[in-house]
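debug: dumping io for the single-chain case to check the tokenizer round-trip. Nothing else runs in this session.
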Amino acid sequence: MSRQAVHTLVRGAARNHVQRTRPANVRGYAQAASIQDTKPPLALFGLDGTYASALYTAAAKTASLDSTSKSLAALAEVFKKDPKLPIILNAPTLSPSDKSQIVQELQRHMGGQDKGETVKNFLKTLSDNNRLGILQGVCEKFTTLMGAARGELDLTVTSAAKLDNKVLQRLEAAIAKSEYSQGKKLKVVSKVNPDIMGGLVVEVGDRTIDLSVSSKITKMNKLLTDTL
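debug: decoded output
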């Protein structure tokens, strides 16, 4: 898909993102798609979700969903290996030359997986719109869309320290037997966030089970405040 076509889709999706904040009955981006097969399988929120949905539609229209998914997976690995990358992409002082070099470097990490250059054009659109900072979120949201298209359900487990595979497998087995799984295949994503202090935050689809220490402290503080 051409860069102009991707830009048009993203611009339209961004406009719908703004309109969703209004009280009127405005159709969402996925509902507005004219071809059923190109509609994102679920509605996502936030600017990264809006852009991920636009990219999904662009890739679906050119039958490049698989190559686009692989390209974004490669970029997601870059974020995992380089924790400073989000800081760089969000820097307000990036010049057009800086952004161009960043896009070229990101393309290099994709290798030859971006067959239709859909992701290449998408990256340039993000750069032109000063939105490179949402790329990591787009990668995550696009994975969610692809999982939904395959009938999978995201199971995100956040802990204060890295969990071993046995713990994750037990959690997956327990959730799979519960009503939370909705009978779908679970795709486990493990995240580390020291801010939760301990315990777990388990997200299954759009449902959250907060068993973190930080959450318990917040509730306790509220209880103390309400009683004083």
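debug: round-trip ok. Confidence is low (pLDDT under 50) at residues 18-36.
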